[in-house]
Write a structure and sequence with these properties.
The protein is α/β, with parallel strands linked by helices and 329 residues long. The chain is 43% helix and 22% strand.
Amino acid sequence: MKIKPTQHIHTVSSLTGQIKTLLEQQFNMVWITAEISNLAVPASGHAYFTLKDDKAIISGVLFRGQQRKMTFSLENGLKIFGLARLSVYEPRGAYQLIFEHMEPEGAGAAQLAFEQLKKKLAQKGIFDSAHKLKPPFLPNHIGVITSATGAAVRDIIKVATRRFPGIRISVFPVAVQGAAAPLQITEALHLVSGSPLFDLILLARGGGSLEDLSAFNSETVAMAIHRSRIPVITGIGHETDVTIADFAADVRAPTPSAAAEMAVPEKKMLEQAIARHRQTLSHQMNRCMTGLRERLTLVSKALISPSRQVQDRQLRLDDFQARLTRVMS
């Protein structure tokens, strides 16, 4: 017996199409929180992954263009929340979430990006002590890379010139926050490092939030510090602020003022040390000269005068000559 359908007969593609329309209309944009697993990033650069909780899973997609806007990287096990649109991939009849915005759950995006970059550069050996350069005891010319209008540059100049009046300092003004800051800082580092005029770099800025210090948590800035042919001292933020640039630097100072103190010795202390050394050297030389004079006196007493020796030899020669004359006669 044949059963006649009383409704329209769907094809697989038409049914999938209708489901797609219904789902996308009903769930246009949704906020979702989940854990990422099965992450895959093919040559296209788009990220494909599974979103899961303890009871269900769903596929997710993050296109390359959206990834470029993020400060952190996706990784398996990362818990996220984000805004996505529900879509149906018709060839497989599978529904998935296409993300427009995503942030890590718990720790902020900036903190997660910091930890991820720190781990990446540490694995490359960028922070190894073997790569650290020793700053000169008394720099000939210091290149200061910082904002031209911030308090950091004023503090550095004030401290450095107070400790050693006449010290040569050149300021290279850069943006220390904002989108343009990483590139400007990197270019300034290359410029100062490549010049034969400088033998020390101070990279500094005042305090701020983690977002304000993001330029100093840039991989390009860290690599520029690592490649510098001359030592780099960082003085970024307050004592509790630690950036990727601090890890890459040859010496980290807690503040810009402390960086200037580390870079420049105190002239008065050097003058006092020189005076002490001069006095010690003079005393030791006097003792040495006195000892040599006494030794010379003793040696002189033990020596026979050369003129006297000549006279003695002359007398002996005259005697031999007289005796020879007698024998010959």
